[in-house]
Amino acid sequence: MRPPTNVQTSSRPTASDDPARSDVTHPANPAWPEWDEWNVRTEICEIGRRLYHHLFVAANDGNISVRLNEEEIIITPTNVSKGFMNPEDMVKLSLDGRLIASRTGKNASSERRMHLAIYKHRPDIRAVVHAHPPTATGLAVAGIGLDKPFLPEIVVRTGPCPLVPYAIPGGDELPDSIIPYLRDHVTLLLGNHGAVAYAPTLIDAAFNMESIELNARIFLVASQVGHINYFDEGQIAALRTRYS
Ligand SMILES: [Zn+2]
Predict the structure, then answer these.
(1) 139 alpha carbon – ligand 1 mean position (Å)
(2) Which residues have a catalytic role annotated?
(3) Other Cβ atoms closer than 10 A to 172
(4) 42 or 1: which carries more pLDDT confidence?
(5) What is the residue range of 234's domain?
(6) pTM for the predicted model, two decimal places
(7) How far, in Å, is the centroid of ligand 1 from the Cα of 57?
């Protein structure tokens, strides 16, 4: 973990400072609105601080990425605390995992393959957040998924959060394990590991991660004081009708 003294206000580089800045090198595609790369890097830092201060990650845990355009993603580096990142720290990869730019020489997150698998299988998704929120991760360690809805928000916003069986991190096993779940979900518990959330924007991916942890806490409290009153099919249909 880097000390707080490394936290500094970074200034936006000019295009001539950084030839890898894709916001000035890629023409806008109407189907893929171009996002300003510096803003994306800054927003990733903000979300990283949010995860860190919520204790959703410890030390250098977790990773965040954003799909910048059709061909490129911006992802957090490995071995850096998400609470103390600077925009320059981010790494730019191609959608097939090739290194495009690393301003500080840092390597991309070791979980980059999981992020790339999500973008490959969900072209509507432009942001991925992976963390170890303690209550949700505790359920994942216990082999418990949040498969059935018990709150209106689960029905109308995030959908269920299934448990993906454990796969060893860092290689192809973890991305391969989540592929069957990607099409129908935006939140997943990773067995004996943590959680991953994704969405069309970074703030919504972060909100989905917060929902995983809050739902897990509510599930745990309800389990401790009584039992879970899951919605029945009629209640689920009524919620969908009202909020569709
Ligand atoms: Zn992890």
Answers:
(1) 15
(2) 111
(3) 12
(4) 42
(5) 112-244
(6) 0.89
(7) 9
